[in-house]
Structures are given as C-alpha cells and as structure tokens.
Amino acid sequence: MQNHFMSDTSADTSDSSNFIRDIIDADLATGKVSQVVTRFPPEPNGYLHIGHAKSICLNFGVARDYGGYCNLRFDDTNPEKESVEYVNSIRRDVEWLGFDWHSNPFASDYFHELYAFALDLIRQGKAYVDSQSADNMRANRGTLTTAGVDSPYRDRSIEDNLQLFEAMKNDEYADGEHVLRAKIDMQSPNINMRDPVLYRIRHVTHHNTGDEWCIYPLYDFTHGLSDAIEGVTHSLCTLEFEDHRPLYDWILDNLETPSRPVQTEFARLQLEYSLTSKRKLNQLVNEGHVSGWDDPRMLTISGMRRRGFTPESINAFCDVIGVTKKYSTIEMGVLENVLREDLNPRSTRRMAVINPLKVIIDNYPQDQEERFEGANHPQNPDYGTREVPFSREIYIERDDFMEDAPRKFFRLSPGREVRLRYAYYITCKEVIKNDAGEIESLICSYDPESRGGSSPDGRKVKGTIHWVSARHAVNATVNLYDRLFTTANPGAAVDFHEALNPDSKIVMEQAKFEPAIELTDNAIAYQFERLGYYISDYDSTTDNPVFNRTMTLRDSWAKIEQSQ
Ligand code: ATP
Ligand code: MG
Fold first, then answer.
1. Does residue 11 surpass a pLDDT of 80?
2. Which ligand does the CA of 46 lie closest to?
C-alpha cells in the first residue's frame, strides 16, 4: 500500500480546490470555455459503489460550483451485462447523494449518430472492415515490446468498406465475422492506437434499443463522441484511461463534432478492506456471501444507505480524500470517522441492551415504577427529552458485569456499586446461575437517595452503565456488522474469498430497547448510548424490529468510563 492517510481526518487534504479545478479556472480565464459541462457516465452493469461516489461528487460538484451542469449518461454499449434494474438503481443512488442531473441520456440514444460518424471515417479512408479471426487479430496486434502487423484487409476500398459495414448493420453476418477498425498505426508504441476496433457484431437484445441493432460501438468510439454530442467541456475519468486519451483525441480530431471536449484523468478511489470492482461485487452477491447488492456490509451506495450512512457523510468523505493524479489507498478509519462526525451532532440518543443480563433490584417495590427524563441529545436542547421508564427488573449488558473483576473494572461485580444512567446507584449482592453454571441474573439493591445519579453523602461511583426496564422493554434483533474482509487489500489476494471475515455479521436476537425507539424507517441512525450508531433495517416491523449497527463509537469503554 502506498500513501496512507492518517486515520486522523484532521490531517486530510480537505480543500475543495484540486488540479481539476485549476484546469477549469484556466479554461474559464482564457475564454476557452464559457460554461462548465461535465457528465457522470456509469455503465448500467451493476450497482454504484463508494468509488463511483468519488466520481459523482467530482463531476456534479464542479458543475454546481462553476454554475454549469452535469449529465447522468448511461454508457451502455455492452448489452449482455446491462439491465433496467441497474439503470433504476443508479438513478436512485445519484439522487440520494443529493445531485440533480441536467439530462439523463443513454449512449445508446446516439447509436444513429455514432453510425453516421463511423460512415464518415470510412469515407475519409480512416476506418476499414477487418475480417480476420479474433485469434489472428490478437496475434497481429503485437505486444508492448513488438510492433503489430497490418491486417490483410487493411487496404480494402472505401466502397467495399461502406458496403460491408452496411451489411454488418443489416444483419447479414454472424457474431465475430467482421469488425470495423480505425486505420491509425499498427506500429504505434501505444497499443490502443493499433487500429482499435470501433464496432463489433453482437446479436443480443439491448435494454434500451431492443433488437434494433446487431452491431454495437465500442467504449472508446462511443465515449468521446457522446461527450461531444452533449457539449461536455471537461470529460473526467480515472487514470486507467490515460493511455486511451490519444484515441479519444484522434476520434474527435478526425470528425466534425458539435463540440470538442477534453479528457482529464484522476486517481480512482482505493479503500482498505473493500472491493470496488463491479465484477467482484457481483460475485459476492451471486455466490451468496452477502444478501444482495444492498447488504449493509457492501460498500455500494445502496448497501451504505441500508447500513445507516447519510448522503452528507459520503459527500464529506469525498471532500476529505480530495482528487489527485496519484494513486493512494485510503484507510477505512477515514470513512468511519467521517460518518461518526456526521452522525454525532444529529443522532437521537437512546438506551438499548444488545446482549441482556437480567438484574433484579430486590429492595425496589414490586409494583412501583417511575419515569426519568432523558435528554434526546446531550449537546442539543432542541432535541428535547423523552421519558425513560424504570422498574424492579431491568436488563444490563452482559459485558457490564464481571464475576471476578480486576480492580480497574468500574462496572458491576459482586459487592461493587455502579450508577444506572439517569436512575440510581445499585450494588450487586448475588449472582444467580443455572445448573450449567451460567450466569442467569443478578440480585442487586438500590440506594433510593441516589435518584438522578448522585448521592447526598457525596459517595463516588466510577462507572455508569445503560439499562432497559424489563417490563417496558421492546424485544428486537440487532445485526452487528463489521468489515467484510479481514485483510486491508482483498482485491490483491489470489482469491478474495480467503479474506472474507467470518464474523462480518453477528445476529443478536435477544436485544431489548427502551420503548421510545421508533422501530421502522428512521431517517438517521440512533446513537445507542455507550454502544454506537444503529438504524432500523428495511426488514424491520413493529412486531419484529430489526436494527443494523451502522458504526461503533470512536470511544472505547475505558475512555467513556474515565469521563464519568
Ligand atoms: P467497475 O470496474 O467497478 O465496473 P467502472 O469504472 O467500469 O467500474 P463505470 O460504470 O464505467 O464503472 O464507472 C462510471 C464512472 O465512475 C467512470 O467515470 C469511472 O471512472 C468512475 N469510477 C469507477 N470506479 C471508480 C473509483 N474507484 N474511483 C473513482 N471513480 C471511479
Ligand atoms: Mg467501465
């Protein structure tokens, strides 16, 4: 791995300026461009992921900041892998991230124009129909160290080429019999310039054009021309396309197009502990390692939404990582911290016990109950308060009790006293076990004088724990999500399956919630006190609540206890 960002997000490159904005500033200053037009061009062959978010925030962000516009263009030239499901998910995700597109064309909307451009190249003697087998074409292409060899069909007459290309279009040939190639230079040191294929025959139904076409243009031919048709001024793409830029320019230089866009490359996002290749994400889904594209462990936009990420946190992350021309791998901690910083000031606080242990307060009257007022947010009084019911039997976290506790354990253990958040001091008197020796419940006593969490005699209690009244508790299931992979760079593994984290999802079926928790459709994750951020899953119902852990708290247990 190269160029780590520190996990401290204050040491970031956060600054909305970047080299692309410098280029735009210069283009506006010289008058080369008067209005900035960009596009985000996904292929609808999968769901969008966090890497795409970087490109979305960049393309839509510069258009917005410079008073221009950005198109959402579906780059749909591979009909085998594309579908309307993907188209719809992409629209939804871009909107959810907070962006409005100017227009939303398909590259396939331009198939007629692209065909006319291809005819133009043929007429100029700059494209020809090649009829070599795929194997011969590959062999004759040469390698990085050896030049290519001209095709025996390279010198076909313009008339023959026109006639053959038309026949290709008119369904007179089978897949693979012919292709249309640009006539550039088989000796070029850049393999992309060795007579690249512009069109191939594919008898496949297209999600947008149906069976109208049996020839389909290739990405390199389609992309620059689509940019030119739309008046895109700055065509921003990832660094893998740097070697394609000479071809992008060659196509635009050799055709009369409505405008002349310029391609600029930036480094793609690489994030630790994740995969950002649609092919591999597809594999995770198809092999059942996750429940779908929107599984909360997937760093797809839809998975992150289900997990409890907000659009603001994803935008903030893209800001923090910035845009450069140099590859770097971003630590997962950067994303996690940005999320916490977004959620902390606005998430409503609640108490929930994920792994419950029953506590019976034996000196608290059997049928008594009372209600404590709890702030919904410790720093923001606008969030108001809610009532937290208390009674003789409560649940605490199993982790908050230890039978043989070391001196520094400031939570509950036999003979020790602890503060119940909002309520009273309790002291553990007895541990009840089942026949197998497992702890079943605790018998405690409470100090009625400590109501509200302090004692009149000034007795100090170090630990404060959360709890839920048993009589009032709502039963819930909580999915504890963790990173999907155990190694920082699963994409580099020979087989990424070996890096899958077997504990990336732990289902807790006995969770207890305080009654003030809304069980479905929370817009923003709750902060369950001392535990982390949690949000209702899509499958959550009032009868069967299911919550997802969005993120743990930054603070460790120890840190929270020290601050008490
Ligand atoms: P994948 O390899 O996952 O299929 P892709 O690049 O083929 O990704 P596209 O749908 O073609 O996916 O991508 C649409 C846009 O998003 C492109 O401009 C592409 O450069 C950009 N993009 C894709 N992945 C990343 C990434 N990791 N970081 C930044 N931009 C990305
Ligand atoms: Mg692509």
1. no
2. 1
